[in-house]
């Protein structure tokens, strides 16, 4: 158990809708990263939040946005859903100030866009 | 692009040692090598990381070559539950992103 939880476990949306995915980080961690994982591929980095500010972003459009809260929770928001957004969404928390880049992952949210 | 190279798949007999290689020829002097694994449809699980000395924990051992251009993850007594995709990863880039390759699909056979 990593202490990182995600909700919901599964979600079905239709094209054009908006979705919010939630993550509860391990207590004491100050970074949270979000990844998208398509079937049969490795995770793709979306962005990372550090002390409640976005400070790194992968090759994803602005309709992917996020928030990190002081209580170790965070959100991933996706607007104007597209069929290709169907994937497993993973959040990972870590503690950067210790000089370690170890990230602890949640179980993921499986998003299906119809 | 991933900064590491791994074989796409490997088999290992249950109870034997599983040795998973990884090439990371572009590694910098102060970069750690990290290993994660992902069991089907679950979130990735951290296994171990190392800089230049060999490392061991309750899950695995990590052997890093002297020139640090390659490493081997060793699962000493593989079980069926070790069947997973194993990823060898270098630390995040300046954009703080971990770059994941395709990993090695390890199948443990009874």
Count of alpha and pi helical runs of chain A: 0
Could you say which overall geometry of chain A the principal axes of the C-alpha atoms support? Answer: globular
Give the uncertain stretches of chain B in residue-range form: none
Oligomer: heterodimer
What string gives the helices and strands of chain B in order? EEEEEEEEE
Task: Give the integer mean of the pLDDT values of chain B.
Answer: 90
Q: What share of residues are in beta strands of chain B?
A: 35-45%
Helix content of chain B: under 10%
Q: What structural class do you assign from the helix and strand content of chain A? A: mainly beta
Q: What is the N-to-C order of secondary-structure elements of chain A (H for helix, E for strand)?
A: EEEEEEEEEEE
Total count of strands of chain A: 11
Q: Kindly name the structural category of chain B.
A: mainly beta
Please compute the radius of gyration of chain A using only Cα atoms.
13 Å
Provide a quick synopsis of the model.
The complex is a heterodimer of chains A (114) and B (110). Chain A has 114 residues and is mainly β.
Can you offer a commentary on this structure?
The complex is a heterodimer of chains A (114) and B (110). Chain A has 114 residues and is mostly beta strands. Chain A contains no helices and 11 strands. The radius of gyration of chain A is 13 Å and the shape is globular. The model of chain A has no long low-confidence stretch (mean pLDDT 91). With 110 residues, chain B is mostly beta strands. Helix content of chain B is 0%, strand content 43%. Chain B is built from no helices and 9 strands. Chain B has strands at residues 9-13, 18-23, 33-38, 45-50, 55-56, 61-64, 70-75, 84-89, 104-109. In chain B, strands 1-9-8-3-4 form a 5-stranded mixed sheet, with no helix packed on it. The radius of gyration of chain B is 13 Å and the shape is globular. In chain B, 34% of the residues are buried. The mean pLDDT of chain B is 90. The chains are: A mainly beta (114), B mainly beta (110). The A-B interface holds A 2, 4, 6, 31, 33, 41-45, 48, 50, 55-58, 88, 90, 92, 101-108, 110 and B 2, 32, 34, 36, 41-46, 49, 87, 91-92, 95-103.
